[in-house]
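Human: You know discrete backbone vocabularies at least as well as I do. Show me how you would write down a chain together with its backbone fold. No explanation is needed for now; the record alone will do.

Assistant:
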Amino acid sequence: MVYTRKDVSTLTRSERRRLVTAFLEIKRRGEYDELVRTHIEYYKPDGESGLRAAHMAPSFLPWHRRFLLDLERALRRVDESVTVPYWDWTRDRTPRAVPWTDDLLGGTGRSSDRQVMTGPFAHRNGKWTIKVGVTDTAFLQRDLGRSGNPIALPTARDVEAALADPVYDTAPWNSTSAKGFRNRLEGWGPGKGAASWLNHNRVHRWVGGHMVGGASANDPVFWMHHAFVDLLWSRWQRRHPNARYLPARPLAAGDAQHGRVVARHEKMPPWDVTPEELRDHSRIYRYA
């Protein structure tokens, strides 16, 4: 049966409670930390050698679509009524908006060490200890809006600039691709600092704390953020029905990106699935 992913701001009190309970249970079981470990493993910058599947590459979108399904399936094994909601950061734009409520994700971190002190994922509740990360920090950290050097979340206009691009991706198929929907949405822009963080990337920076870097999946908002990114990919597909994932074929041996990006019909690690097979999600889920 096809299920529905809802806007997180529309969840009922009961739906919020069920979602949180499912998150805490898969954390208790150890399943959540395995997902975090996977994201860290595949978070490879384009300056490194070898295959890039999760970031700075054409497979950014199908990789995270499959990654979200792994998380969602784990949640639904706990409670089949639960689905991953999406956070529309073009509308819910402040640290006081949903999902930053005490009955859902809690709020920002305290000023001294960015430790989240409110909500069910606060370390002091004893149910959300960071066990897999790039530092030894045991508590979840956030700095919503970057208090020391504020930035704003992306706007609907920023998203529109990505959706309007009719080509999925372009050479050199990495963070420097000046055109193509994938990199416009992933958000690797020219220059340095805040001006270069667009769309998806800017949201990670706005949340701050654990959301900056390979261990970002430690924060449950990661999944709500990527559900919205996935929804935007769906909207792009509807707007450009004849556009397809690129590159269509493996790059030639003489290409600098040969062996470093996943082509349309190549298997995408760590799963036995291709970007083409993840193009259509309509038989699994839909968005409200």
